[in-house]
């Protein structure tokens, strides 16, 4: 098995072992065809998981309203779910490192089954809040990312992770459409029944088609740091060369647009004047853009450019998107801005995940993916308060100006700083 040429000086024997295990190559423990099949199964599981999730998100406001929950209570419900996802992301990643990607993916799918079961039985507001609890382990995308990370070489990783965006697009389009049709024709509880059955099927798919071992035996082990949640462990990972810098870029570059998206349901009604059906069409448009960008653009660029170049590009495009958002006045302006927005968002998520998983030992990739997965729940937790203040006091343009200033600052930082990364591209 060939080894990577560049090794960080502080990594020592543990990192060198991780690099050797990551490079599965032609002589890996699984054949190339077998690895490809497992990766495709991970895509299927992720697509189904997202479909059921977006199906639930579309009908959740109506279900909550039917139980007598007001807008303030619904906000609390969303905040609780965000906090559970935030806390559970890192725990889930550590679980994946200690028990394997297959066990983690099964845990996510089984948790989704319990989630939909409780939701289908929610005949009162306390039961509705209780149904949020399994959300702490519902991390289908990080589970699929862990499988893909184990099954690919570092040079293949960005392209393989990028294709998960196709699953995201499928989830938005199929989940929103199916959830709307089922709830309109058969009632608001029917999508939860479909989600329950579908999640059980997803669990079986993961159990049957994902191998119990997704990386070499010498690397499939419980680390000496065995606690599922430890601040010390998070700090240890952040001390690896380049990890803290890239993670901070990941958090701050996407924060302003994350605040905007949290407030989008209100903005679409008040600022754009859209009806519910028109908002659904706009979400479908985003789903199609996501599929095109992730399926046709991200992977090809990853094959020809270094990851640091793509990271700088995504931040620069984000700055341009901020200027466009500050100047937009109609929904048609937003549809135009959505193209570079989806590109920058997809590129930033894919490239930072790829960089960060390669910057830590392979025995810690699950924990690193869990930390990355906690970024969006963190935004959903603090976003409603911050986004509400920005929108009420300064209007929609404030999100654009914040986006522009933050990403211009990050772009200058990335140009001047020398983050110690192994610059690689697929051959």
From TrEMBL:
Keywords: Cell membrane, Membrane, Transmembrane, Transmembrane helix. Signal peptide: none annotated. It is a multi-pass membrane protein. It holds the Pfam family MFS_1. One of its GO terms (cellular component) is nuclear envelope. The keyword Transmembrane helix applies. InterPro entries: MFS, MFS_dom, MFS_trans_sf, Tet-R_TetA/multi-R_MdtG-like. The chain crosses the membrane at residues 41-63, 75-93, 105-129, 160-182, 189-210, 247-267, 279-297, 309-327, 334-352, 394-415. GO terms for molecular function: transmembrane transporter activity. PROSITE patterns: MFS. Its main location: membrane. Residues 35-421 form the Major facilitator superfamily (MFS) profile domain. It comes from the Eukaryota. It is found in: Apical cell membrane. May act as a transporter of organic cations based on a proton efflux antiport mechanism. May play a role in the transport of chloroquine and quinidine-related compounds in kidney. Plays a role in the regulation of lipid metabolism. This is Organic cation transporter-like protein 2. It comes from Elachura formosa. The lineage of its organism: Eukaryota, Metazoa, Chordata, Craniata, Vertebrata. The gene is Slc22a18.
């Amino acid at each position: 098995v060939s080894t990577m040429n560049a090794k960080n000086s502080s990594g020592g024997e543990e990192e060198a072992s991780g690099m050797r295990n990551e490079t599965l190559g032609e002589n890996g423990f699984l054949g190339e065809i077998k690895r490809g099949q497992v990766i495709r199964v991970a895509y299927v599981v992720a697509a189904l998981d997202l479909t059921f999730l977006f199906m639930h998100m579309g009908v959740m406001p109506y279900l909550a309203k039917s139980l007598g929950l007001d807008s303030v209570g619904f906000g609390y419900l969303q905040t609780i779910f965000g906090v559970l996802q935030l806390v559970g992301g890192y725990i889930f990643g550590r679980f994946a490192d200690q028990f394997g990607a297959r066990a983690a993916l099964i845990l996510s799918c089984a948790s989704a089954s319990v989630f939909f079961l409780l939701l289908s039985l929610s005949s009162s507001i306390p039961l509705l809040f209780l149904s949020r609890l399994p959300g702490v382990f519902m991390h289908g995308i990080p589970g699929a990312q862990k499988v893909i990370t184990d099954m690919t070489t570092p040079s293949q990783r960005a392209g393989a992770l990028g294709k998960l965006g196709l699953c995201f697009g499928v989830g938005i389009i199929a989940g929103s459409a199916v959830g709307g049709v089922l709830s309109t024709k058969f009632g608001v509880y029917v999508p939860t029944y479909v989600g329950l059955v579908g999640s059980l099927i997803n669990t079986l798919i993961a159990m049957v088609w994902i191998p119990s071992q997704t990386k070499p035996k010498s690397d499939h082990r419980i680390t000496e740091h065995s606690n599922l949640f430890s601040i010390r462990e998070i700090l240890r990972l952040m001390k690896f060369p380049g990890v803290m810098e890239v993670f901070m870029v990941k958090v701050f570059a996407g924060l302003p647009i994350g605040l905007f998206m949290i407030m989008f349901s209100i903005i679409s009604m008040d600022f754009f004047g859209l009806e519910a059906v028109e908002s659904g069409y706009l979400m479908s448009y985003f789903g199609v853009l996501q599929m095109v960008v992730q399926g046709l653009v991200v992977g090809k660029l990853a094959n020809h450019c270094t990851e640091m170049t793509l990271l700088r590009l995504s931040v620069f495009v984000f700055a341009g998107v901020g200027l466009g958002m500050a100047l937009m006045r109609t929904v048609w302006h937003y549809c135009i801005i959505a193209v570079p927005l989806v590109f920058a968002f997809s590129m930033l998520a894919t490239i930072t995940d790829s960089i960060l998983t390669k910057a830590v030992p392979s025995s810690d990739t699950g924990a690193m993916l869990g930390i990355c997965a906690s970024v969006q729940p963190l935004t959903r937790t603090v976003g409603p308060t911050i986004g509400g203040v920005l929108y009420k006091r300064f209007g929609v343009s404030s999100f654009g100006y914040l986006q522009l200033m933050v990403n211009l600052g990050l772009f200058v930082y990335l140009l001047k700083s020398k983050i110690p990364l192994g610059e690689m591209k697929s051959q």
